[in-house]
């Protein structure tokens, strides 16, 4: 049996972007409207067995043990995520596609992540950007022909897909795409985490066997890109 590779992945983003809803769906809890904001940090572990990765042209099978940390986005808890960012092998930064401010705050989150990692003398990390609440944007588009009363209550998309892709290029993030904590299945979120774990594995410094760490995106341009 292959030895498990341990990774820590932290969910970050403003309060109400849906971090906890994604976290709950990932671990097969039913979606609930109006989930209360996380107070502090919650964590659970998920295992992936015999994951096929292509490293330097060779197919390998790896086993991953991923601990997911759901952090609070409320201002008074901002000091809590700092501790978890320092020890993370990967970060999933989440915004709400129906809330422009949560998207504009990506710069603040990016600056904070860079500062924390730098101060911790860690030169390797990987960040994936993920837009949530696709179901609300889809509903707003599908309901255009309904009566005016319903249209007044619909939620509109405020951040378009192209904007998410563009800001990933600006900050050297991986683009995780757009999702719906309500409509996506547990398996879809598991696939997302598994693919992110593969990206982390394929971009680590293989000479460091003591701890899996994540390659800083700014250095990726100097390395041969490996598609997973």
Question: Mind explaining what this structure looks like?
Answer:
- It is a single chain.
- The chain has helices at 19-26, 79-86, 100-104, 106-119, 134-142, 148-152, 161-171, 186-202, and strands at residues 4-12, 41-55, 58-71, 90-96, 127-132, 174-178.
- The chain has eight helices and six strands, in the order βαββαβααβαααβα.
- It has a six-stranded mixed sheet, sandwiched between helices.
- It is 34% helix and 25% strand.
- Mean pLDDT is 78; it is low at 205-228.
- With 228 residues, the chain is of the alpha/beta class.
- The protein starts with a strand and ends in a 26-residue tail after the last helix.
- The longest helix is centred in the last third of the chain and has 17 residues, at 186-202.
List keywords for this structure.
single chain, 228 residues, 6 strands, 25% strand, disordered C terminus
Summarize the structure.
The chain is of the alpha/beta class and 228 residues long. Helix content is 34%, strand content 25%.
Outline the low-pLDDT stretches. Answer: 205-228
Strand content: 15-25%
| Order of helix and strand elements from N to C terminus | EHEEHEHHEHHHEH
Q: Give the overall average pLDDT.
A: 78
Which structural class matches the secondary elements?
Answer: alpha/beta
Number of helices: 8
Largest sheet: 6 strands, mixed
Please give the share of residues in helix: 25-40%
What is the CA-atom radius of gyration, in angstroms? 18 Å
Q: Strand sequence of the main sheet, in spatial order?
A: 2-3-1-4-5-6
């Amino acid at each position: 049996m292959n030895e498990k590779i341990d990774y820590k992945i932290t969910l970050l983003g403003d309060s109400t972007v849906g971090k906890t809803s994604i976290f709950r769906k990932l671990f097969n809890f039913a979606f609930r409207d109006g989930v209360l904001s996380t107070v502090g940090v919650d964590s659970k572990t998920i295992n992936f067995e015999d994951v096929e990765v292509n490293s330097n042209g060779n197919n390998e099978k790896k086993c991953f043990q991923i601990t997911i940390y759901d952090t609070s986005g409320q201002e008074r808890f901002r000091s809590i995520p700092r501790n978890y960012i320092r020890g993370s092998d990967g970060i999933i930064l989440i915004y709400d596609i129906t809330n422009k401010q949560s998207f504009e705050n990506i710069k603040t989150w990016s600056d904070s992540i860079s500062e924390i990692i730098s101060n911790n003398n860690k030169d390797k990390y990987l960040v994936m950007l993920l837009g949530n609440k696709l179901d609300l944007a889809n509903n707003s588009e599908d309901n255009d022909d309904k009566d005016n009363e319903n249209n007044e209550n619909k939620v509109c998309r405020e951040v378009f897909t192209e904007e998410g892709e563009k800001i990933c290029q600006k900050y050297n993030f991986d683009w995780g795409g757009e999702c719906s904590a309500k409509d996506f299945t547990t398996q879809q979120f598991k696939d997302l985490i598994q693919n992110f774990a593969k990206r982390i594995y394929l971009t680590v410094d293989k000479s460091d066997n003591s701890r899996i760490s994540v390659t800083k995106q700014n250095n990726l341009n100097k390395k041969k890109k490996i598609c997973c």
